[in-house]
Amino acid sequence: GNSVTQMEGPVTLSEEAFLTINCTYTATGYPSLFWYVQYPGEGLQLLLKATKADDKGSNKGFEATYRKETTSFHLEKGSVQVSDSAVYFCALSGGGSEKLVFGKGTKLTVNP
Amino acid sequence: GAVVSQHPSRVICKSGTSVKIECRSLDFQATTMFWYRQFPKQSLMLMATSNEGSKATYEQGVEKDKFLINHASLTLSTLTVTSAHPEDSSFYICSARERSSGGALAKNIQYFGAGTRLSVL
Q1: Using a CB-CB distance cutoff of 8 angstroms, which residues of chain B are in contact with residue A5?
Q2: Is the dihedral of CA B91, B61, B31, B21 positive or negative?
Q3: C-alpha angle with apex A73: A67 to A79, nearest 5 degrees?
Q4: Which of A45, A51, A107 lies nearest to residue B107, judging by beta carbons?
Q5: pLDDT in tens, chain A (112 residues)
Q6: In Å, how far is B58's CA from the nearest CA of chain A?
Q7: Do the chains contact at A32 and B108, CB–CB below 8 Å?
């Protein structure tokens, strides 16, 4: 079945540091890939997405590229801010299923 | 962008009572809504898939008689936790998938509500 493996946290960075959160997946066919962000006490917000190989999703300075050859969708940001502190979830859908499959989430804390 | 409203955001109830949580898509039609449960510091666990006008599909291990789901319209789904017990205390989150033509499953963008924190005393 489909599955998502993402880097376990927590991750603690200083403001303006470079961020990478690794995400790899297992799926049949050509899944769509997503990053969701959850701020404390809130639901999930779609951060970015990519629906086919080599697509790059980007939003709010975050980027992730759909790499079929390495089955990866790593999240990156060049300079994090304190307001980026949240839990980040990698997810996929497709491969014959409509369901979203989530990774376990990575908690990011950015210190001033 | 697409907005999903979930209500209430927090509810505290006594053991044995029932609690209803509403999930509304405010600016789009959602043929499919999903209900998740999230335990502290863990990922989301899909409980059920709710399709407008039909019975919900429950994931393995989820009691359908305990978690009643109704999806009466294209913009509203409800989850009722019946005879709630302390072990039902959790964060419940709904999501809605926008109805679209052609390739909808391939896109499968789900928009999430803000969640409901249920505490059963």
Answers
A1: none
A2: negative
A3: 120
A4: A51
A5: 888 999 888 999 999 999 999 999 999 888 999 999 999 878 889 999 999 999 999 999 999 999 999 999 999 999 999 999 999 999 998 866 778 899 999 999 999 9
A6: 12
A7: yes
